[in-house]
Design brief:
The protein is an alpha/beta fold. It has two domains: 2-119, 3-Layer(aba) Sandwich (Rossmann fold); 136-223, no CATH class. It is built from eight helices and seven strands. The strands form two sheets. It has a four-stranded parallel sheet with strand order 3-2-4-5, sandwiched between helices. α5 (96-105) links the parallel β4 (89-92) and β5. The longest helix has 18 residues, at 39-56. The two termini are 33 Å apart. The model has no long low-confidence stretch (mean pLDDT 95). One iron/sulfur cluster binds at residues 153-155, 157, 161-162, 164-165, 170-172, 178-180.
């Protein structure tokens, strides 16, 4: 899932300073799961904004809403169109893709990000998430026992360790296990050590911005 965190309150309050009618817009997808931008967090942020304005003796109207997936145009269009005359600015609690989807669909409204989008990651335990995938577009997990060297190796090495690991820890960061050592042990456990002898894979690195076109889906839509 995409992991994000709410921006510091001071930064958020500065961004919305000029506005009196604010739509605080959450997303019920990834940012709800990582407790950063779901309906509960929308309510909390809304309350904090109102409290701040009350303290400053300034007027504010906050509208609270949450979309199913803010990165999905069909999910946001009806909500935002219905309330178009009720707000001057959208404070989006989605990831960067959600914020940009709203900005693209409603070019006449200013959309501000309430979250910092951190990474695509995994929930390790309650309140702890770690980065897991850089969305490189040419996944190698099939030959690395499900451990991503692009993301987890500090040097992003694809064809084996750099040789600098010490006691299982990465030479770049002693807090991190050496990804290639982990890959070795996992392949050994799975009786797949021969994968390491395979010819190095030439990686097809993506050009940004990435784009996926599925002609099969496009054909269905146009018929
Ligand atoms: S190789 Fe790593 S970064 Fe690339 S798609 Fe697979 S998990 Fe993501
Ligand atoms: S020690 Fe391991 S994880 Fe760290 S840079 Fe070298 S190969 Fe990558």
């Amino acid at each position: 899932m995409i992991v994000g965190e709410r921006k510091p309150m001071e930064e958020l309050l500065g961004m919305i300073e000029d506005f009196e009618r604010i739509l605080v817009l959450g997303c019920k997808g990834c940012v709800t799961v990582c407790c950063a931008g779901g309906p509960k967090e929308v309510k909390t942020l809304s309350t904090l904004i109102r409290m701040d304005r009350k303290q400053k003796g300034r007027k504010v109207i906050t509208i609270e809403a949450s979309t199913e997936l803010q990165c999905e145009p069909e999910s946001i269009r009806p909500i935002l169109e219905k309330m178009a005359n009720q707000y001057d600015v959208v404070l989006s609690m989605a990831c960067g893709a959600g914020v940009q989807t709203v900005a693209k669909l409603f070019p006449d409204k200013l959309v501000l990000p309430a979250l910092n989008t951190n990474f695509t990651g995994i929930a390790e335990e309650h309140g702890v998430w770690t980065e897991a995938c850089l969305a490189c577009g040419d996944c190698v997990l099939g030959r690395t026992a499900g451990i991503c060297p692009v993301t987890l190796c500090a040097k992003g090495l694809l064809n084996g360790p750099c040789g600098g690991a010490s006691e299982g820890k990465c030479e770049v960061s002693k807090d991190q296990p050496c990804a290639w050592q982990e890959i070795y042990h996992a392949l050994k456990r799975l009786n797949r050590l021969h994968y390491l002898k395979q010819k190095p894979q030439v990686k097809d690195w993506p050009v940004h911005p990435g784009r996926v076109v599925r002609e099969d889906l496009r054909e269905v839509e146009t018929t």
